[in-house]
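re: ur question from yesterday

yeah so i grabbed the chain u mentioned. its 212 aa long if i counted rite. heres the sequnce exactly as i have it in my notes:
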Amino acid sequence: MYTIEASRITDRAVLVEAIGGIRLAAVFTGEHGLNCTQVPMVVDEAASGGLRLRGHVARANPHWRAIGSGTPAIALFQGPHAYVSPGWYETKRETGKAVPTWAYIAVEARGRLTTIDDPSELRAMLDALTDQNEAGQPAPWTVADAPADYIERMMRGIVGIEMQVEALDGVWKLNQAKSAGDRAGTARGLSEASREEARALARLVPTDPPDR
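ran it thru and got these structure tokens back, copy pasting raw so excuse formatting
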């Protein structure tokens, strides 16, 4: 995933935490024609250090038929993003030499996709995915709350997928390469935006280039 080095994040713990917060990935494959599906996913770290992503797609979605045993794939997790106006920059006021850009957070996982065919493994994935997304609810729902025969019928309508992650890369594009004055203007402009995700980005704009 292209970015300038100032915006690249390689700290695995930071990237895994971001995946756990974003949760929804655009999953791309191209081995048997270009396919892309939005997939809610859960991330697991093995004791051995391996990383996997699990989710599911509708059985009616032809994408799963393009997934063989170890199909190369990308899972792109797109975090908050926002327009950045050149009017926010100190440089704009001083020289006029400023143009718009976009601030965003994204994590790209590359690896090999397989389908989850074993019913018990599919159920385990559903339990993990549900528990992740129900956390924080006043009364968290569990898969076991629904009648067993209903869940079995619903499971027949989905196909589980699993990625063994081989590479993880992140971009926190927050004007790190800009001057301190332009970064301060970026943070101020984002903090005053109407969209919540823009305001969330404002809190992440560094006063100094971040350690990576």
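noticed a couple things. The chain is about 30% helix and 35% strand. also Residues 119-134 form the longest helix (16 residues).
anyway ttyl
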